[in-house]
């Protein structure tokens, strides 16, 4: 594990992580998360009521929407609003973030309220979906605290049963590496996004062979690397929430 | 691993698998794949030319589109054509099938030709995306053979570098099980779709905690089960292609 | 009337007709109808309630949606879901099937229930709309029987006041012919689709001059031919429903 | 045939017909057609070039688009532009008008030019599609004359091989009637739209049982009535074009 | 102010203005407004009820929709219904007309009723939005009178607190001119649309430098000219309403 | 002019203005502009080539797209990408920004290149469109400098013929005020957005009576106030570009 990385990191090293809470004045929770040059603004919006299929169930709902500013990337992408539809990649990531957050939400404890977490990528350099999940959890936590302050949920109940963070891993030139930046992501033979809880369990594992298929040993190495990365991210989240 | 299953299968047992080639008269490749009650019609259509971004590259393209008939399921779903947009789940699965197929395609050997594999679910009972991938590979193989017969590709080159099949696995009441039917899928705490090559390597691993997060031991058990199931499916594919 | 046809049929001869009931496990009525190589899956779905404009009227509603799988035809057509809109031809045929079915439905006897009949063309070789109507009626009948079994409608009332079937006719090289296959349809100077009740009355007559305008004598010959074809189709429907 | 009509007409009598040419200053052909209170503005626009599938064929193209102003009817209808899609009825009628016009067009003689005929209903009182066809033909003729003046087509060739007009017929209280106004249209058991050439041949026959199915004798009576009405409309067209 | 104009008018002279009330039979108010060759059909439709955000408020709503027939202009424009979306210019003008009308509406006096004013440009020669506003006011007045006759609003209340009219002004070759026709509009360096009440106050001022930016003196001259034009239009409105 | 303002400002005082250049790493020009709590990210993207209607003209193109993040405002707004269409307000503002920038662009000097300026509102507190224009100009200037460095434009030509900035003004409780924050904007009887060049000329004047119509004296006072504000903003732009 001693291959040189673009930015001089070690194979199992995260990029500098920053979680800036209260970045915006309006949302109930708002976090600017940075994984190196990747910057995602995560805002959590609380509204009373739930989607139709949950009405009367006593349960709340948490969902997420992911998007990129048109020039968050090196080349400008057309706006999905102008194209008139949300692309497949965008929908896939929005669904992933929503599932990841709901894995640690007790919807009964939320009551019939909805929290929408918007993750807007202001600048992209690889790992936007994993940064988004990591920041979204913190924004969600702040929104839940706001709800408790407003007596929208009972003090005795905690709608959050744990925390989630996420990281990408990949194999480059045969070496498993943690938290790929864009340049690495493009070169990776295998690319995996892993969502973990703070206690090291898996919420989502999505591995794709971009080049040659990967074997079980490679898969195992990637899972080890990701588990370690998520653990570190979880401590960043704790630190941010305590500050 | 002795828990009773809805249909009396053992935990590591596939449902009856059928691969009916030449189901339709028009397409270059067409396969009706059945995993138990799940029936997917996979048709492979060859067209000359490639999408814009590949023109002049000498490379071909393989892509897939997945869809469900409105009453393939127990409750009728609205048509996506009538709603005017393709849903997130549909796009996600279409992208997955396309990636899985491209993992075994040498696009250079295809020349500047495109193969679109349509996977239309005629009847759904769980595992539609994994059945689709398994059937799509066979339809793709038939389309490639058709191209060779028509001299659209050189006899000396094989655009297919291997085969892919896919299967779902999940944990139900703590027991890892292979090839979930719909009733099982709904009850699964963890749900994973795995795409493998015939030589046992991984092309895609997508695991999601539907209920509680899963630990590494559970993940390992699911991967073992899936690898075994894909091996068996690969032999079904070989048998179908030789018949 | 002795002109040779592509498939050796006589001018007034239908292609082989098959009506396979209970083709799918989920729908309340499901029929695979085949007119030669044309295969249409007709499924009838019962839901409680009616569209807004009928609420409180005590009347039910029957409607239809027609679509083609992308590779049902010789050349692959783009999916309407991907294009984001339903084409004019598709809408026109959906509306035709719905009107044809409603011609034999007593909506009062249905109660405030809706039956949607989906007609999905799995393989096309001319006459898809007429095959669809012929199969849709049988699926509708099965759905009505299911409703009676479930006590959703009163035993004393029959929501179906008759039966409908449909057939295409056309003039090729000056000869009126029944039930055109695709190759004939393309060559026809005049093309007509006729929907009849079992007692020989007309529900819909749609004739179009594809080449030269047609005179009254030709129109009369086509109507005679169509009436005969529908009569024969009606007996196929009876036989299928009795089996 | 002596039943009283809403407006005192005889059963086989057209409403007052007006064809005002050059109603607008911009289009190459423009006609305000009135069938009683029904008013449709038909404009024919000539553009060089043809749709992609005709390029290089040496043939031209004629197509039509039909639409209603939102308050052309008694109750305001939502704009299709605002709804974001063209309704089924609108598409069906646009396609009908296009087919009717093309039945008398020699596309070779047009050269690679396109004529789009827009039929916008300014006020509706039944028979909008038949008025549209009748007016569209006159606008088309004016556009063709304009093209000849501009030397866009050769003087020796006539792209119009005949004329078309259209009329609705229906059975009300058992009596076949010509050219239904809205109030009659709503009450009709059977409704038929017929497009004829000036020499009395049929271009399109579309009959629908709105109530009870109709028998052959009724169909024959309607066809007779329509043929007579179209003949009269053809003479209105000639008169307008000569004026 | 003596520069020659295309049509011989003086710089501060309106084109001939016509306001034809009751142009259509169906709408509660309908006016064909003509500013020279510009013809806009304005229809006011009354419906009971209000948009969701006003329910229970006791207030009514007035809104407007502007559109152009495809061949209202010199070159045919694609239909927005066919394109599937309403263009920016169309929306901008619809919003402008709605705001202009609401400036003289007392929504309380309307009660929970909605008036939609449709402004459809039948023929365009510059100034379509200002003609639309000028005609829309008259149609609105007629619809309000209709409501009073139908007792939908109390006789003691007048929902209209004043009148509005609008005119375009522009600078051509350095000379400020009133009510530009299309040919002038294209050449104008600065283009301004002004909406005034009958008592000479401003409701909307929208000035744009098409060529060089304009200075305060030019702006002042344009405002003077527009105020004079609106005053004259207001007297046309009064005359039309009294006739 | 001594009325108390929400934030203690004087009636003719701007909020604190910040223009942070190079806020993002990818775009050719990027500026975070802040007018008090309003924050807009303006990025200028250079691409070779021009829209179809300009090809071969030797001229370039500058256009703008404005959008708001869903929770930029106090209440979350639905994403336009999810709704499938761009709203009227968004389009209106995008068009305004584009026109404002083009007023100081010599498209000939740009060559056949396109600059798209995206203005994404990260946080809204009134005046988002005027802040966007003010920041967009600076981003545009940086993009032009980048083009010169890359030799995409000749050193001898300056595509920018001046600078533009914009500010809102309004009348609150009878007092004309500069640069309204959201709370003031809601209360304003009259609201005007003014775009000026650095030499004090007008590029765009858009005034709307939200409450009572305004008279000429009020309009004059607002124009004076806006001209002063723009002058100050122009000096902020110069300072930012020199830093």
TrEMBL record, chains A, B, C, D, E, F:
Keywords, alphabetical: Nucleotidyltransferase, RNA-binding, rRNA processing, Transferase, tRNA processing, tRNA-binding
* Limits of the Exoribonuclease phosphorolytic domain: 13-143, 163-227
Q: Where does phosphate bind?
A: 89, 127-129
Provide the E.C. number(s) assigned to this enzyme. 2.7.7.56
Reaction catalysed?
tRNA(n+1) + phosphate = tRNA(n) + a ribonucleoside 5'-diphosphate
Q: A Pfam family in this protein?
A: RNase_PH_C
In terms of superkingdom, the source organism counts as: Bacteria
Q: Which CDD domains match?
A: RNase_PH_bact
Q: Where, by residue number, does the polypeptide cross the bilayer?
A: none
The entry assigns this protein to a family as follows: Belongs to the RNase PH family.
| Function (record text) | Phosphorolytic 3'-5' exoribonuclease that plays an important role in tRNA 3'-end maturation. Removes nucleotide residues following the 3'-CCA terminus of tRNAs; can also add nucleotides to the ends of RNA molecules by using nucleoside diphosphates as substrates, but this may not be physiologically important. Probably plays a role in initiation of 16S rRNA degradation (leading to ribosome degradation) during starvation.
- Could you describe the subunit structure of this protein? Homohexameric ring arranged as a trimer of dimers.
Q: What is this protein called?
A: Ribonuclease PH
Its source organism is Catenulispora subtropica
């Amino acid at each position: 594990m001693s291959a040189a990385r673009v930015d001089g990191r070690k194979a199992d090293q995260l990029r500098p992580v920053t979680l800036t809470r209260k970045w915006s004045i309006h949302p109930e929770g708002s976090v600017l998360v940075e994984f190196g040059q990747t910057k995602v603004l995560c805002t959590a919006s609380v509204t009373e009521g739930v989607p139709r299929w949950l009405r009367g169930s006593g349960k709340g709902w948490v969902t997420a929407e992911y998007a990129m500013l048109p020039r968050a990337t090196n080349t400008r992408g057309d706006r999905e609003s102008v194209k008139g539809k949300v692309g497949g990649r965008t929908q896939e990531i929005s669904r992933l973030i929503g599932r990841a957050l709901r894995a640690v939400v007790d919807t009964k404890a939320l009551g019939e309220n909805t929290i929408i977490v918007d993750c807007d990528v202001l600048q992209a350099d690889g790992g936007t979906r994993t940064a988004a999940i990591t920041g979204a959890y913190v924004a969600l936590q702040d929104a839940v605290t706001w709800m408790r302050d407003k007596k929208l949920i009972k003090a005795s109940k905690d709608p959050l049963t744990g925390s989630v963070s996420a990281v990408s891993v990949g194999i480059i030139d045969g070496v498993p590496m943690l938290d790929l930046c864009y340049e690495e992501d493009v070169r990776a033979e295998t690319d995996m996004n892993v969502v973990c809880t703070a206690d090291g369990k898996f919420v989502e594992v999505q591995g794709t062979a971009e080049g040659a298929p990967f074997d079980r040993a490679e898969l195992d190495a990637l899972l080890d690397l990701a588990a370690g990365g998520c653990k570190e991210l979880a401590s960043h989240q704790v630190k941010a929430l305590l500050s």
